[in-house]
């Protein structure tokens, strides 16, 4: 352990003095002003002469946190005499305010010349652990909350992004004719801070505020370091993948608590498992009924003759510990607890009890308070939702994991209707054992899965999700949506203004740092997953639009510019060729081919084929007003024929039954159709983001 | 005319000198520093003694716009001697830089004590005319573009809102312990500036920058005024309502350019008009065919025996002038030009020609380049969209006007499927004559219309739309969506309907100032219109959520907080009552009643009835997971039974065919259902906004 920190902890102090904090900075090559601690007025006089002027005098006292407010700071000292009198004045003032404060002297420091004041911070986020913060000082952080976060440790690229991400960053590149400041120096301080907090777990908070950045170099004018003896132990990041396998492809399942009454949750779970696709054995456990849905019941899981790989519990919460104990004795190693009535109702002890029982027998638990699992290939289906009320999607590449069963059900039905194949679906509810990190690791190695969608509310071990994501995103895209942004945000907010942005900002930064694509609402989550599941990645971000009704293209263009994506500048040759071959009613610009309401399938074919061959065009975006009578059903073949070019195709069409029929027909050959321009552009953006993520990560990892 | 402005215009100057601009300010009671123009060094010496110190010296020269850069400013003059030497220095420096500049002396002014620097500006917006701007000086305006706009003239409330709307406004209320500054003084300057630019049309630009605001009072330190001789004449705001009547309820319509070939636009327009609801006479004009769709054709509109009230043109663009001339001779007074090929393709002369011809005969034109009109009551329907491809909505309260036919078609089909009744639909395309302002005025007085939805791309006479909106919004809600917001979007819009879009920020401010509800995308536009069409306005903004699956409620809570709306604090009595009467599996908090997946229709009924009776609850928001088997179809009666309480009900449900069936069943009794929590909350927000608008406007107007 670092000696400065060790000594402070040894003295049972939770805060370093400023000279200590600065010495720690110096050890990590973070530049601080030339300075010296004077312990007498004579020392102040002498030291000042050696340091040069102007100087600042600051009280050194672990008990005096707000130095300026305590009268402990004097600026602009110009001579040894002034230094001596400043020494006396500072000590006198602080003693007046707080007679009991232990004073360790007065720090004399050269004043830094003016520059841009920035803030570098680090904290221990309760979900994500060591987190770095960067912002420009004063109103930008305090009023506008214009800050960037990254989890430590960071790469050089991460540090550069932090600097580039803040809105006020143009202040660093020269504002109103002032010279640009040294961004590289900020990057070095961020990297050094990352190293400092990573190597020293005891550092719980660190504030370099202000850091004055000059044309060349940057200097930390004030530093504050808060320590803690307690270490934040986290569950190990690595999930034993084997332990999850049984949840998806069990040979035999026991459903415990199967009611004989149709409509009851246990009954419906048993129905979904026993009457449809799942080919394994399904045993209903019910102590009173003889048979349920024609199947012989068992009084207890212990009465079942053969092996049971997976138990699904729909029994009342308070019976869960004893039921789990029986499962353990039976040798069951995987349990899905559908029942609610645990932590979400304040029954934390009951939840701890089931965790203990499970540990004792080596059982892994999914839930409680969840709807469980759908595996489209094994047919395993633990939903209590009747088939006439809820569609199940066909097998395919998307794994979806969700804390909320409701969102899960919605997305699965949307997927079923729009031809998105699902590999596995997991609802994990209260997450007493298996969490998002485990599942991301599992799907990362799952050959049936190539796209991962996640909905989370609260996070427990965010760091684990982050680390799991880091390992997966270069190979498989992860799209994530988090709710619970506002309430939780304030709770985790620290007293220091820099952290007022709250926990959603940290979570979002962490997800992005791990290479996940962050969705802001459930439509975005679904739409991006849909594009990733159906289309190849583009080679660039240029979109070309072809339409027979231009209104939505105007909106799309707005969105494309807002996202900073390119709209293809269609090459002059392609424009000339299109003008030659398309009918005269068509309006051809460098960004959009508007076939107008007179546009036919043949016009679409001509336009799209030309654009597909233009190397400047990376994404084809046909907008289709199917209601326009001149457009006939040959358009389906036109779209299907575009797939051979290997460029992603994103369609947009909205309307009633006829439009939906046509859209679904297009989706049968895996070209996605979106209802609005905004949704189409957002989906295209998802593809472009994943292109960048895969490119960057394959280089840096 | 103001004498200062008159004299400057007389001297053919386009810019006032600083002393002139400040004298103008003084005439409008805007405070400027005590100052005097010195024309000799002796005058400078003497004047300074009278003014007091410190002073600033500034060159007075209409040719020297950037005074500081030209060396024309010296700060912090402390004595008459310094004033004299500053006089000489300023003149010498400016002459060196620009020997030809006419110099009218040196302005000596008392320096204002430090305070918060703000900017008040006014400009002549090409679409909206005189527009005011407010922001905090320096980076806030220049880097962060944190500014508020309003059209002049403004009310006192408008001025207060401008101050409150900027993000950095907390700087005015005291930042880092500094005292709050005088917001009332800013409001007074805004009001005075509004008066100044309104009374003096020649003032095209005005910049009060900086205005230094103190704890008490505010002073304009620099002022710049740009003049123009040319007046910006606008079309009179008042639309003769009678001239539009014929478009919706004509007795006889001629469709000119009816092709005999099914699928061609002219043919399909004639089919829509002649084969469905419209009961009036429909005459097809075609010079070659004998009959079309069984109806005798006419070679020209002049050959039609009876009166023709409305002509629908689907002829090629270049024949439009002669066809219109024939219409004029026939006495037709209303024409819809469906055909494209005018301004949007660069054929501006052709468009001018039709406008001229129409003026000659007093014909009003809708279009060109549009899909025309649907009147659900008269049955008038000019769409070229076949009925088997496009649903038509039933009669009801919503008027919808759109520049884009495509958006129109989409929204009409959505409305048809979700039981939203439409009074009238108008697509106006290139808008060569009838514009949004006309239509808003028309719908404002239309007894069949009680909600107005608008989609616009570019605007021509934005001021007219604004003024028309002001007259309507207190009585009838207007929801507006504008695209063409970015450079790219605007470019795409131009090639669509021939109109460049202006600054979106100004347009948005103008819409809001007129009391319109601004939607950011087409879903928002549709969703808010749907809620306004189906539900009463609430008495407040408190929402109570009841659900059988809480995930979307978390997202809704985020959105509710983001919008700054209230989430009902359900009274203690109601909470206790609900805990008593609901089953134990229900989770009851002060904001949400979670019936959990076990929730039944009876549970919903119990919960919703209690909440409907709670006076703290203003909006009921049931979330319905219809897929959950315990929820049966009695839920329909439960929702229907809630209407008697007169509180708005906004439902949320998403999924596949079963869920859609249930949602549509709810919508048959005019309770709207939304697919996502975000959309439901946004719809509720629309109701709350309209409540505020109606309340505020009924007081202020």
What is this entry, summarized?
The structure is a homodimer of 701-residue chains. Chain A has 701 residues and is α/β, with parallel strands linked by helices.
Which helices and strands, and how do they pair?
Two copies of one chain form a homodimer.
Chain A: H1 3-10, H2 18-27, E1 35-38, H3 41-51, E2 55-59, E3 73-77, H4 80-97, E4 106-110, E5 116-125, E6 129-136, H5 139-142, E7 147-151, H6 156-165, H7 183-199, E8 203-213, E9 218-220, E10 223-227, H8 242-248, E11 252-256, H9 265-274, E12 281-285, E13 291-292, E14 295-296, E15 310-313, H10 320-330, E16 334-337, H11 348-361, E17 364-366, E18 372-375, E19 395-402, H12 405-417, E20 422-427, H13 436-445, E21 451-456, H14 462-472, E22 478-482, H15 487-492, H16 503-513, E23 517-519, H17 522-534, E24 543-547, H18 551-562, H19 572-581, E25 587-588, E26 592-594, H20 601-613, E27 619-622, H21 635-642, E28 651-652, H22 657-668, E29 673-674, H23 677-700
Parallel strand pairs in A: 11-12, 11-15, 15-16, 16-17, 19-20, 19-21, 21-22, 22-23, 24-26, 24-27, 28-29
Antiparallel strand pairs in A: 1-4, 2-3, 2-4, 5-6, 5-8, 6-7, 8-9, 8-10, 13-14, 18-20, 25-26
């Amino acid at each position: 352990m670092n000696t400065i920190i060790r000594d402070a902890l040894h003295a049972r102090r939770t805060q370093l003095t400023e000279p200590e904090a600065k010495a720690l900075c110096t050890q990590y090559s973070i530049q601080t002003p030339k300075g010296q601690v004077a312990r007498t007025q004579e020392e102040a006089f002498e030291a000042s002469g050696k340091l040069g002027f102007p100087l600042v005098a600051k009280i050194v006292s672990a008990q005096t946190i707000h130095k300026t407010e305590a009268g402990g700071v004097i600026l602009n000292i110009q001579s040894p005499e002034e230094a001596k009198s400043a020494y006396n004045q500072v000590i006198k003032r602080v003693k007046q305010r707080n007679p009991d404060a232990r004073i360790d002297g007065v720090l004399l420091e050269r004043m830094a010349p003016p520059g841009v004041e920035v803030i570098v911070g680090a904290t221990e986020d309760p979900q994500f652990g060591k987190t770095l913060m960067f912002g420009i000082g004063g109103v930008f952080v305090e009023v506008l909350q214009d800050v960037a976060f990254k989890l430590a440790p960071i790469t050089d690229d991460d540090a550069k992004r932090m600097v580039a991400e803040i809105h006020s960053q143009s202040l660093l590149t020269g504002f109103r004719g002032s010279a640009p400041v040294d961004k590289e120096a900020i990057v070095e301080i961020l990297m050094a801070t990352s190293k400092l907090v990573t190597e020293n777990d005891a550092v719980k908070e660190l504030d370099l505020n202000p850091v004055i950045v000059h044309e060349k170099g940057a200097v930390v004018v004030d530093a504050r370091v808060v320590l803690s003896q307690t270490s934040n132990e986290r569950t190990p990041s690595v999930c034993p993948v084997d332990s999850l396998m049984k949840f998806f492809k069990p040979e035999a399942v026991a459903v415990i608590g199967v009611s004989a009454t149709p409509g009851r949750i246990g009954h419906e779970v048993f129905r979904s498992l026993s009457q449809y696709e799942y080919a394994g054995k399904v045993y209903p456990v019910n102590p009173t009924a003889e048979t349920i849905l024609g199947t012989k019941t068992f009084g207890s899981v212990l009465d079942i003759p053969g092996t049971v790989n997976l138990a699904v519990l729909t029994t009342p919460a308070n019976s869960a510990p004893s039921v789990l104990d029986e499962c353990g004795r039976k040798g069951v190693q995987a349990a899905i607890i559908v029942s609610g009535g645990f932590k979400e109702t304040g029954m934390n002890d009951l939840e701890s009890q089931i965790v203990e029982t499970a540990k004792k027998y080596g059982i892994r638990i999914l839930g409680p308070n969840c709807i469980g699992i759908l595996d489209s290939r094994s047919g395993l289906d633990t939903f209590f939702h009747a088939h006439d009320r809820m569609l199940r999607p066909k097998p395919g590449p998307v794994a979806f994991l969700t804390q909320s069963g409701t969102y899960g059900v919605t997305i699965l039905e949307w997927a079923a209707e729009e031809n998105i194949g699902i590999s596995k679906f997991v609802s994990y509810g209260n997450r007493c054992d298996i969490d998002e990190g485990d599942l991301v690791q599992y799907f990362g190695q799952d050959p049936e899965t190539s796209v991962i969608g996640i909905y989370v509310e609260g996070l427990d071990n965010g760091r684990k999700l982050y680390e799991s994501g880091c390992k997966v995103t270069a190979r498989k895209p992860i799209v994530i949506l988090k709710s619970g942004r506002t309430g939780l945000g304030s709770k985790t907010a620290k007293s220091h203004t820099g952290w007022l942005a709250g926990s959603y900002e940290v979570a979002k930064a962490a997800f992005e740092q791990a290479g996940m694509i962050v969705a802001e609402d459930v439509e975005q989550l679904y739409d991006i997953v849909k594009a990733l599941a159906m289309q190849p990645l583009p080679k660039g971000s240029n979109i070309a639009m072809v339409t027979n009704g231009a209104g939505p293209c105007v909106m799309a263009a707005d969105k494309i510019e807002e996202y900073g994506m390119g709209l293809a500048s269609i090459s002059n040759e392609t424009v000339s060729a299109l003008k030659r071959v398309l009918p005269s009613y068509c309006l051809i610009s460098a960004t959009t081919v508007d076939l107008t309401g007179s546009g036919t399938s043949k016009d679409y074919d001509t336009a799209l084929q030309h654009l597909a061959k233009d190397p400047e065009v990376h994404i084809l975006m046909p907008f289709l007003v199917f209601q326009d009578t001149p457009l006939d059903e040959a358009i389906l073949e036109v779209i299907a024929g575009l797939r051979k070019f290997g460029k992603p195709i994103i369609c947009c069409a909205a309307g009633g039954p006829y439009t939906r029929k046509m859209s679904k027909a297009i989706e049968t050959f895996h070209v996605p159709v979106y209802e609005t321009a905004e949704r189409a552009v957002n989906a295209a953006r998802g593809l472009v983001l994943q292109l960048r993520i895969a490119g960057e990560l394959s280089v840096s990892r």
